């Protein structure tokens, strides 16, 4: 069975973006050994444009072959005229308002997103990359099998949380932790 992996960047205090969802300010940390790690070990999670820019667009998929993202995350690419930001992956966008896909290769999931992810998990293939949106992560919270959290050395104090849900404790086990020269720490957890 495939797993759903929530691969996300967060501040020390657990926010994935400003209150409006913007997280561009974290890009200044994507340098040095962290950049090398992303290019060599996490290339599946890079947008197709980033893969081309960093010269890894011909690198075969190793961890993920499918991405699901929320409408707000997808809108970032659409504003740039990019209808398929993860063209190297099978793309799904969860949206209650987007009724028709702007790209024939992008599946819009407007109904039961949990049911659709459960169907995906039963298929053969690599893991499913949950690419963001606190709302979508909140809806899929019970389906998340793995958390990969890139913790950036900043405190935001307020903003978009990792999961847009109420209080409830879910236990995960730390699988690995890696630190980088710029203070970023990447932790991988598996659901207990």
UniProtKB/TrEMBL annotation:
Protein name, per record: Dihydrofolate reductase family protein
Residue ranges crossing the lipid bilayer per the database entry: none
Lineage: Bacteria, Bacillati, Actinomycetota, Actinomycetes, Kitasatosporales
Matching InterPro entries: DHFR-like_dom_sf, RibDG_C, Riboflavin_Biosynth_HTPR
SUPFAM superfamilies tied to this protein: Dihydrofolate reductase-like (SSF53597)
Residue ranges of domain Bacterial bifunctional deaminase-reductase C-terminal in the record: 4-186
């Amino acid at each position: 069975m495939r797993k759903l992996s929530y691969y996300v960047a967060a501040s020390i205090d657990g926010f994935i973006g400003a209150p409006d969802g913007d997280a561009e300010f974290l890009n200044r940390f994507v340098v040095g050994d962290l950049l090398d790690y992303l290019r060599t070990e996490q290339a599946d999670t890079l947008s197709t444009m980033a893969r081309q820019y960093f010269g890894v667009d011909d690198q075969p998929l190793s961890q993920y072959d499918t991405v699901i993202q929320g409408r707000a995350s997808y809108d970032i690419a659409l504003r740039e005229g990019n209808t398929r930001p993860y063209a190297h992956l099978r793309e799904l966008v969860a949206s209650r308002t987007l009724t028709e896909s702007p790209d024939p290769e992008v599946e819009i999931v407007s109904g039961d997103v949990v049911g659709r992810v459960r169907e995906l998990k039963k298929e053969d293939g690599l893991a499913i990359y949950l690419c963001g949106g606190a709302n979508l992560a909140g809806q899929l919270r019970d389906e998340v099998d793995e958390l990969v959290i890139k913790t950036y050395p900043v405190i935001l104090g307020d903003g978009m949380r990792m999961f847009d849900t109420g209080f409830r404790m879910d236990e995960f086990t730390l699988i690995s932790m890696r630190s980088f020269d710029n203070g970023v720490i990447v932790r991988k957890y598996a659901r207990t």
